[in-house]
Write a structure and sequence with these properties.
Length: about 400
Amino acid sequence: MNKIAVYSEIGKLKTVLLHEPGLELTNLVPDYLEDFLFDDIPWLPLAKKEHQALAQVFRNAGVKVVYLSDLVTEALDSNESVRDSFISDFVLESNIDDNDAISKLTMYLKSIKDTKELVLKTMVGIKKSEIDVKSEGNPFITYPMPNLYFERDPVACVGDGVLINRMFFKTRCRETIYGRYIFTYHKDYKNVPKYYEHNGIPSIEGGDIMILNENTLLIGISQRTKLEAIRELAKNLFLKNKTSFKTIVAFEIPKKRTFMHLDTVFTQVDKYKFLYYKECFENVGIIKLTKNDNSIIEETINSKFKDVLEEMLQHEVTLIPCGGDDDVAAAREQWSDGANSITLKPGEVIVYERNDITNHVLKKYALKIHSIPSSELSRGRGGPRCMCMPLEREPVK
């Protein structure tokens, strides 16, 4: 049964995919923080409480919350051969060059009888000492996946289908294995169309992909999403598959960690209202890809960012500045994900409570906000939108 329906950023949210931070955070060590894309080590007990607060806001709003590890477990339990295939793929993607270590790791994973325990173990990271492999320097035979609680990036639900993305950083590439198995073997999701496959294609990540309406996508050309990948996605949506999408508008944002994805500087909060970090959009490069019968027209747009949005929506829009009009507050709160909100329904959003200036500005623009604690979650550099992947939204009237 196809249960994917996402044609906007703001339609009433019905189902959302999350991953609660787990023991993978306890395998973060100072020497590897930069490699794992963290600036500090979150304290797991509080990070879990903060994430549970996010999940509770969703539930209070009537949203069904599903968890990554549960869906993967159900997919693997569909058939014994699927479980074995998953282990083989996981070991292969761990890039181990020692045959003895590969054999020992495979046997170790097959010895874990409980499938949920197996899934979580692949996420947590496995030390060489656990499988009796000599440790020289690096203690891990498979690295932890501490970025998994940012569920927005490895897969992206677009329309009635899904994109299995190719991640930019090596440390995150293995995260896509879970989405691949869910959307291939899970009873509820195995028939969902795949509009993008990750193998051998330039990187694209879900934090750069936004759905303006049933016809138009907004995508960031960023450090992690390449124009070549956007062109490939356009072919898949416009020419190779029957979808409603006819236009992709791509915005070039600065290619640095501060602005890692489009959604770190721009999110939609109401039908014609957008939260944004204005510094990134003063002279933004814009490329438009449009379906034209059996071809794609690509053109550079010289219009201002706001004018392009209004053209796409055929309506005047309001841009709400992250941090208000104070440049210092704007830079500080953008860093702590003040521009990264997730919309429950038009005009109602979830935000981090730490960004008090931005939240005050949102209220002035008549937005209803739900603020969640984030002292630990924010150490991974991602906000409420980063942490969730909507699977179903109601149409916007």
